[in-house]
Design goal:
β13 and β14 (220-221) form a beta hairpin. With 288 residues, the protein is mainly beta. The termini are close together. The relative contact order is 0.19. It is built from 4 helices and 18 strands. It has an 18-stranded mixed sheet that branches.
């Protein structure tokens, strides 16, 4: 039986098992199965997935994300904040601002420190992408990807945005009655999205606020999705519901994020990152 050290962290309830790959060694071919194992609430630790904090040749740190179904994700906003917190508090980086590499991009993170503890992190998520081929999404190219899906004899309109991973944003009049568990999984695997998609339901409120719920590809319902909150704000700014350069408070099930789509095109996300527990995980899958 082999083992490795882990840290469980969450950003607004979106929780992952984090492994410091500067110190631990895990076999590449075992990572998908390992993500499934550690995520299991009955026989593992219980989480939304597995995140590896790795050395990088192009940034200070590299993040790899595996969903609880074993699939590898391209980006994770809540994960980025937790990686930033871990990297700073564990001495992997020494500056308050540094870069993190993901599969899809390189982002800049800034940690906000009080008494040597990181409680809040601001991440520059880069520029949103609207081109269908880059989301990716099938169909004719548009300046801003909008479409509709037929589900149970009713058409639902949505906006598609990539924040390093694909999102379909549905505006609803009442977030409590959003078809999260029915339309969510249907859209996730819809043929419009060849790599599947994260599905957001949002209710626009006055005073720069949004109510938000999400069905994440590969994970299902989660408490929060940082890239999804960014996509939601971008989509609603495009719809002239809100303005550029103004912070929008997004109310997720796990708490609040402040999202700003700046005039220069970058999307800034500010929110908490929390360490839950640390320990040793024992595996029978041959991880060394």
């Amino acid at each position: 039986m082999n083992s490795f050290r882990y840290t469980k962290m969450h950003g607004l309830g979106n929780n992952y098992i984090y492994v410091n790959m500067f110190e631990e060694k895990l076999k590449e071919e075992e990572l998908s199965n390992l993500a499934v194992d550690v995520s299991n609430v009955n026989t593992g630790i219980g989480s939304d997935g597995l995140i590896l904090i790795c050395p990088s040749e192009v940034a200070e740190v590299k993040m790899r994300i595996f969903n609880n179904d074993g699939s590898e994700a391209k980006n994770c906003g809540n994960g980025l904040r937790c990686v930033a917190k871990y990297a700073f508090e564990n001495g992997i980086v020494n500056n308050n601002s540094f870069t993190i590499e993901t599969i899809s991009t390189i982002v800049k993170a800034t940690v906000h420190v009080e008494n040597n503890v990181v409680n809040q992190v601001t991440v520059n998520m880069g520029k949103p992408v609207f081109q269908r081929t880059q989301i990716p999404m099938t169909g004719n190219e548009q300046e801003f990807a909008k479409d509709k899906i037929l589900f149970e004899e009713e058409y639902y309109e949505f906006s598609a945005v990539s924040m390093g991973n694909p999102h379909a944003v549905f505006e609803v009049s009442d977030i409590k009655n959003a078809p999260l568990t029915t339309l969510g999984p249907f859209v996730e695997k819809h043929e419009l999205f060849p790599e599947s998609v994260n599905v957001e339901f949002i209710e626009c409120l006055p005073h720069n606020e949004i109510n938000f719920s999400v069905w994440e590809r590969g994970s299902g319902i989660t408490q929060a999705c940082g890239t999804g909150a960014c996509a939601a704000v971008v989509a609603m700014v495009q719809e002239s519901k809100y303005n550029r350069d103004e912070p929008i408070t997004v109310h997720l099930q796990g708490g609040d994020l402040q999202i700003t789509w700046s005039a220069d095109g970058d999307v800034l996300m500010k929110g908490p990152a929390v360490t839950i527990t640390e320990g040793i995980y024992y595996t029978q899958r041959g991880v060394k």
